[in-house]
């Protein structure tokens, strides 16, 4: 129970959260993969009422630095859920995950805040994995980015009347992600507005088969990735809003690369079954792209978000 000033005052934590790619082709709002690109956040609980936010890197000079900051709102929501008084907060964010590109930056910000709350409240409130996912999903709206951001690896996420659930799977070591990031952004809400209310039964069956196959391809049989990343539920409906993404995904797939739209786009995720195949994919994009695209050769992150006390540096959670 909360009573008087926050017992967290004076505590300080460091949070690290990976980028994520959701959908992975057929697994709309369900499958997600954690990637080796990390936002880092330092949070200190102070004895005044102030919220001070410093943003370095991506979003510097753009994202709000007051109580409306997404990380601050996530911290506040976790404290409120557990009935804990919110201390003053000093945040320093070092961001590298691109914003508005389909790499889970908003999910990472939310997970950063929830994990910071977990660290600050350690020994006062135990926020377990299920609660972390529930808190993060309540803010994000769907669990497919926040689940891999929290837990790492490949995650299957689903929603029940009791709340969001997840299963984490380890990815075959041959699976090699490559992400292409354009200079332009895409709004997730715009992308979602392009989805129809209902889809043909045959398309639903198509995606059920590919999603099941994709889990097998990612954990056991990477040679099936091209067939397993086919989709009829979202990418075609959204193509008009990101024509170059659509054109490059089609071109890469015609050349045998398992390319998909990353999350709601506009970035492209290629899931290679051989690290060297990524160079060929990068050459193809360099040859066919009409605007600049940055290739990021990444690994799968297997750990997910971490929080450590600032001074001690021993893990509180992972
Ligand atoms: N599954 C989500 C979508 C991911 O594609 O809309 C982006 O938040």
Automatic annotation (TrEMBL):
Top-level EC class as recorded in UniProt: transferase
Swiss-Prot/TrEMBL catalytic activity: L-homoserine + ATP = O-phospho-L-homoserine + ADP + H(+)
Domain GHMP kinase N-terminal: 69-153
EC numbers: 2.7.1.39
Main location: cytoplasm
GO-annotated molecular function: ATP binding; homoserine kinase activity
Localization per record: Cytoplasm
Entry keyword Kinase: yes
Domain GHMP kinase C-terminal: 230-283
Residues reported in the UniProt entry to bind ATP: 98-108
GO biological process: threonine biosynthetic process
GO CC terms: cytoplasm
Annotated pathway: Amino-acid biosynthesis; L-threonine biosynthesis; L-threonine from L-aspartate: step 4/5
Keywords: Amino-acid biosynthesis, ATP-binding, Cytoplasm, Kinase, Nucleotide-binding, Threonine biosynthesis, Transferase
Function (record text): Catalyzes the ATP-dependent phosphorylation of L-homoserine to L-homoserine phosphate.
Similarity field: Belongs to the GHMP kinase family. Homoserine kinase subfamily.
Classification via HAMAP family: Homoser_kinase
Name assigned to this protein: Homoserine kinase
Organism: Naasia lichenicola
């Amino acid at each position: 129970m909360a009573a008087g000033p926050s017992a967290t005052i004076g505590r300080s934590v460091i949070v690290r959260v990976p980028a994520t790619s959701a959908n992975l082709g057929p697994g709309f709002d369900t499958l997600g993969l954690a990637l080796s690109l990390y936002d880092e956040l330092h949070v200190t609980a102070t004895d005044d009422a102030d919220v001070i936010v410093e943003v370095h890197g991506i979003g510097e000079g753009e994202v709000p630095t007051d109580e409306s900051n997404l990380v601050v709102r996530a911290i506040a929501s976790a404290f409120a859920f557990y009935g804990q008084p919110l201390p003053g907060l000093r945040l320093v964010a070092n961001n590298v995950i691109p914003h508005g590109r389909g790499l889970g930056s908003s999910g990472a910000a939310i997970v950063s805040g929830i994990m910071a709350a977990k660290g600050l409240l350690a020994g006062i409130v135990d926020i377990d994995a299920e609660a972390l996912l529930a808190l993060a999903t309540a803010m994000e709206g769907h669990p497919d980015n926040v689940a891999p951001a929290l837990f790492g690896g490949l995650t299957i996420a689903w929603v029940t009347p009791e709340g969001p659930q997840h299963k984490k799977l380890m990815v075959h070591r041959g699976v090699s992600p490559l992400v292409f990031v354009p200079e332009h952004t895409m709004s997730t809400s715009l992308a979602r507005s392009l989805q129809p209310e209902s889809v043909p039964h045959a398309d639903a069956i198509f995606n059920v088969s590919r999603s099941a196959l994709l889990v097998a391809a990612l954990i056991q049989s990477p040679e099936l990735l091209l067939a397993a990343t086919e989709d009829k539920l979202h990418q075609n409906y959204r193509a008009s809003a990101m024509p170059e993404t659509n054109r490059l995904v089609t071109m890469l797939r015609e050349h045998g690369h398992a390319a998909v739209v990353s999350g709601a786009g506009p970035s492209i995720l290629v899931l290679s079954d051989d690290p060297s195949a990524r160079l060929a994919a990068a050459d193809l994009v360099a040859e066919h792209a009409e605007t600049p695209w940055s290739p990021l050769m990444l690994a799968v992150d297997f750990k997910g978000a971490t929080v450590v006390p600032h001074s001690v540096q021993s893990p509180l959670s992972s």
